[in-house]
Amino acid sequence: MTSRPGVLVTRRIPARVLQALETRCEVDLHTGQAPISREELLRRVRGKHALVCLLTDPVDREVLDAGSDLRIVANIAVGYDNLDVAYARSRGVEVTNTPDVLTEATAEFTWGLILAVTRRIPEGERLLRAGGWKGWALDFMLGSELRGKQLGIVGLGRIGLAVAVRAPAFGMRVAYATADPVPAARAGSLPVPQMEPQSFDQLLATSHVVSLHVPLTATTRHLIDGTALARMKRTAYLVNTSRGPVIDEAALAWALGEHLIAGAALDVYEGEPAVHPDLLALENVVLAPHLGSATTETRTAMADLAVRNVLAVLDGQPALTPVP
Ligand code: DGY
């Protein structure tokens, strides 16, 4: 490529990472606080050779047709359900995501949610701030202990495994249900515990905490519906740091309201940033605003990996992390 390639970046990225891109490319950066609008995306992707985008940017046929010079779409996320990967590939466009760099941060956050919901931490804080705390009492705001109980991991990929390896620290045993091959040794520096493979239904029926770590696909959409929730124990908790539409939110709100399960902790939602109004009204659900990978270290590493993918492909090299 003789002239400098054009790259559209749909949201601010860390300055150091942006500079690395600017040394080699003409960068068109969307600087707004809100996601780039559909119209802007369609207009500004024209003539660009690379697109660096976020999980909030649907990159479908129309966008890929508008960006007819694109050679790579680099998603700053490990999930890529916002991209039409098959159509991009049919146009010869490389598609990359950001695996590995966010695994530990997301696993740590998942444990944060598990502790928050089982020990009612946000509920307690809400009560305290509202002036409702009348002092220590033996039976005040009792939660549920993790020790000796089963953590059920649905989807034993990188993040599922990273959550699982932390379970022994809380005295939990681990069961998993997965459609993917079980990763061999991808658990960072922590030893992989004994884990029991179970069917999805068995895992739902026997786990104290069910934690979701599947990608969003046609098969996993509403994997947790009314039927799945009815299979869970009344004392069980559901945690989701994967993708919102994996859960039927209306069914979950109903199940929580009826106390069919003890509680839920969610980081992701069906219609982000909207949250089902019935969930907002419930005390037994912890609601986080999609923060799983939100550490300075990890978000910088994600942007950096996306940019390194762009530079590799524009240099005629293979992408570092093409989507599988
Ligand atoms: C991802 O990378 O898919 C995460 O959801 C971002 O937090």
TL;DR of this structure?
The protein is of the alpha/beta class and about 325 residues long. It has helices at about 15-20, 40-45, 60-65, 85-90, 105-120, 120-130, 160-165, 200-205, 225-230, 250-255, 275-280, 295-315; strands at about 5-10, 25-30, 50-55, 70-75, 95, 150-155, 175, 195, 210, 235-240, 265, 285.
Notes on the structure:
The chain has 324 residues and is α/β, with parallel strands linked by helices. The chain has two domains: 115 residues, 3-Layer(aba) Sandwich (Rossmann fold), CATH 3.40.50.720; 185 residues, NAD(P)-binding Rossmann-like Domain (Rossmann fold). 32% of the residues lie in helices and 15% in strands. The protein has twelve helices and twelve strands. The chain has a seven-stranded parallel beta sheet, with helices on both faces. The model has no long low-confidence stretch (mean pLDDT 96). Bound molecules: (2R)-2,3-dihydroxypropanoic acid.
Secondary structure topology:
Blueprint: E1 6-9, H1 15-22, E2 26-29, H2 38-44, E3 50-53, H3 61-66, E4 72-75, H4 85-90, E5 94-96, H5 103-118, H6 121-129, E6 150-154, H7 158-164, E7 173-177, E8 195-197, H8 200-206, E9 209-212, H9 226-231, E10 237-240, H10 249-257, E11 263-266, H11 277-280, E12 285-287, H12 296-314
Considering the chains and any ligands shown, give keywords for the structure.
alpha/beta; Rossmann fold; 2 domains; 12 helices; binds (2R)-2,3-dihydroxypropanoic acid
